[in-house]
UniProtKB/TrEMBL annotation:
Gene3D superfamilies: Homeodomain-like, Tetracycline Repressor, domain 2. This is TetR/AcrR family transcriptional regulator. Residues 18-78 form the HTH tetR-type domain. Residues 41-60 bind DNA. The lineage of its organism: Bacteria, Bacillati, Actinomycetota, Actinomycetes, Micromonosporales.
Length: 220
């Protein structure tokens, strides 16, 4: 759910086409970080990337198309999941990766711009949702591994655990503007691990099945 800086779902192009795409998406990210989505202009992107305006207009069409492709690229190029052998270790690795991304001046500004744009632009919203779906899906298996080791209860929802790790860090980015440091990342990971062990992230069907029936409920 984090990036180290990669669209649409097609075969990745090679040669000159790949170089053009990389330059355009880099320029898109830079301009988003500098000026936000509202001022993202395809002509400015073309100028920054040193490619023809016609190429940018023909391939991406509008700013939302650029952002959608940028988010696809970011998801593809983000670092793979770390496996430490413990749930806390894995969640801490995830939290620190999020922390490094969001505390980076360029990346933090880029995410603020994209998240703000997603509030009112449907295509950007869809691209952002796909980005996070990919990143959460990459890390959720660490919870399944923790279930297999007996660290957390059977039926724990791995995706919800990963969301809980990132949420406090995004709150700092978007709301409180407090420092996004390693201490904050470690607290987020530790809190999510404790809650997962206590059964806070059981799937609703599992939680319902485990709830004892009361004498006054139907069927008793």
């Amino acid at each position: 759910m984090t990036v180290e800086q990669a669209g649409p779902g097609t075969t990745r192009p090679g040669g000159r086409t790949a170089r053009i795409r990389a330059a355009v998406l880099r320029a898109t990210g830079d301009l988003l970080a500098e000026h936000g989505f509202a001022r993202l202009d395809l002509a400015d992107v073309a100028s920054r990337a040193e490619v023809g305006k016609t190429t940018v207009y023909r391939r991406w069409g509008n700013p939302a198309g650029l952002v959608a492709d940028l988010l696809t690229e970011m998801a593809e190029q983000s670092l793979p999941r770390t496996e430490t052998g413990t749930l806390l270790g894995d969640l801490t690795a995830n939290a620190r990766l999020v922390q490094r991304t969001l505390s980076d001046a360029r990346q933090g500004a880029l995410f603020r711009a994209v998240i703000a744009a997603a509030v009112w632009d449907d295509r950007t919203d869809g691209a952002l949702r796909r980005f996070y779906d990919v990143r959460i899906g990459e890390w959720a298996p660490c919870v399944q591994q923790a279930i297999a080791r007996g660290e957390v209860p059977e039926g724990t929802d791995g995706r919800e655990v990963i969301k809980a790790v990132s949420a406090p860090l995004y709150y700092r980015l978007l709301a409180s503007r407090e420092p996004i440091d390693e201490a904050a990342a470690d607290r987020a990971a530790g809190a999510a691990a404790i809650a997962a062990r206590a059964g806070a992230y059981l799937r609703p069907d599992v939680r319902q099945a485990a709830r004892p029936e009361r004498a006054d409920e139907p069927g008793m």
